[in-house]
Amino acid sequence: MIDRRRSFALLLAVPLLVPPLVFAQASGRVPPSNTRPFFSAPANGQAIRGDVIVRYGLRGEGPVPGGVVRLFLLVDTDALPARGLAIAPDANRIALAGGQTETTLKLAPGQHVLQLLLTDADGVPYDPTVLSEQLAVTVQ
User: What is the CA radius of gyration of the chain?
Assistant: First the structure.
């Protein structure tokens, strides 16, 4: 006869024996290989009058695949949530979902720093974090 207590104890012990990476991949927290966000416009250091049209994409993926990964546009911030937590969108952390490759920002005059952050479909940053290069623009 099967000893249910031993079976239950073994069931509880299995996660301790399996490398953490396996669980990270299963939960979608490991970044897709060779996928990096990038800006195609504006140019780094560009001075802009009026609205800022930002064009972007993913190297290794083509258009941003909605529902699989998400991009966040970080505006004048590098603050991220604690490890394993989703980003709460706000004025400085803009969710770019749905496969779009362009967005328009209304920024106050002055210098601004933009950066793209790749997350899983739930908005949780990957480990290791996948970021684009920073992009500096000056709104006149």
Answer: 20
Token readout for 33 is 């290989």
Q: Which two tokens stand for residue 54?
A: 């930002």
Higher pLDDT, 83 or 62: 83
Amino acid identity at 120:
D
Quote the CA–CA distance of 59 and 127 in Å, as a whole number. 18
pLDDT, tens only, 63-122 = 555 566 789 999 999 898 988 999 999 999 999 977 789 999 999 999 999 999 999 889
How far are the Cα atoms of 72, 95, 96, 132 from residue 90, in angstroms, in the given order? 10, 8, 12, 19
Name the CATH architecture for the domain at 31-139.
Answer: Sandwich (2.60)
Q: Are 101 and 64 within 8 A, CB to CB?
A: yes
3-state secondary structure of 60: coil
Angle at 119 between CA 34 and CA 75, to 5 degrees: 105
Place of tokens 């952050």: 117
All structural domains of the chain with their residue ranges:
1-29, 31-139
Task: Determine if the pTM surpasses 0.85.
Answer: no
pLDDT: which is higher, 34 or 110: 110
